């Protein structure tokens, strides 16, 4: 087995746990008596922690091997979950939400440790395979989320009577996922050491070029708006379905599971294309469809139509996620790939931090659909900036003339 399949297996396992959590975490908090505002702040605390740690991990990933960093991430994810199982005080929910990303991480992502994953991929493959490899990796995570989401649809209806026990079960699933990932990563660590032994990064302390800075600034600005669009809608979408249509977690779980599966299929199809300009044009088109779907989503009075629009929006938004991620690594020279990933991920996260809390405030005032309209507006602005990035930077990426590793 090579490193890439192990990283994809990691994504798949994390995705299963994340699929369960994105469906059940907020409804469980609701049944435990948490207000929409407090639940939104709990999610925002996790987004804030991920944002801050991502900035540090990117710099470290440029100078250190990625696998040990990923192992540290799994340990950090499972530790607060263990403490909550030992002591059920609500403060441990807050801590677990912050450190483990409960209910807000998706795509099988290792959260703030993603730069380590992406630099490991970049160091072990040829550049021409980067877009397809990252898309395949994302498809594995989305497939796991589909399984987690669909499995949640078939849990006993009596689960809502015991929200605390349900929450403990979710955290046990997180712990099991982390333990399995640590086992796999130990094997990947040996492979990584063999694969990159003797390689050195040219000029590891060299500054960014002006063109690289401009490209990253455009990407970060587009991502900030993109992240706010997602943050105000995605982490709390199960709550929106519950408030708008009075649907239970089982029904919502089925909808989300199908949406994850559709996104995984989109990502897998994109991975089969190898010309990066075609991939980026597809990303622009899919993001446009996602914006239209989100704008239309509050309009139907039918639960079925709202679900269909959500599934289309989710697949169009999440499916090309690997393309945007790979793009960040292409905008700079290889020795700055970790930092570029940090900029990419933290710019997505910094605005998303405020999304769940903002949505909770609108819901408290009875403005259930307002967050979705705001998300669509932010999505339009993000798309405009991404088009500018494509025309001014992507057509002439700074790393294009560099030799493949």
Short description, anyone?
The chain has 405 residues and is an all-alpha fold. It has 16 helices and no strands.
Topology:
Elements: H1 3-31, H2 36-63, H3 66-86, H4 90-100, H5 114-124, H6 130-152, H7 163-196, H8 210-231, H9 237-245, H10 249-271, H11 276-296, H12 303-318, H13 321-330, H14 337-352, H15 355-364, H16 370-394
Helix pairs in contact: 1-6, 1-7, 1-10, 2-4, 2-5, 2-14, 2-15, 3-4, 3-5, 3-7, 5-14, 6-10, 6-13, 8-14, 8-16, 10-12, 11-12, 11-16, 13-14
Observed structural traits:
Putative major facilitator superfamily transporter; MFS; 405 residues; disordered C terminus; transmembrane transporter activity; membrane; single chain; Growth Hormone, Chain: A; transmembrane
Describe what you observe in this structure.
By secondary structure, the chain is an all-alpha fold. The protein has helices at about 5-30, 35-65, 65-85, 90-100, 115-125, 130-150, 165-195, 210-230, 235-245, 250-270, 275-295, 305-320, 320-330, 335-350, 355-365, 370-395. The chain is globular, with a radius of gyration of 20 Å. About 75% of the residues lie in helices and about 0% in strands. Residues about 395-405 have low confidence and may be disordered. The longest helix is centred in the middle third of the chain and has 34 residues, at about 165-195. About 55% of the residues are buried. GO terms for molecular function: transmembrane transporter activity. This is Putative major facilitator superfamily transporter. Pfam families: MFS_1. It comes from Leptospirillum ferrooxidans (strain C2-3).
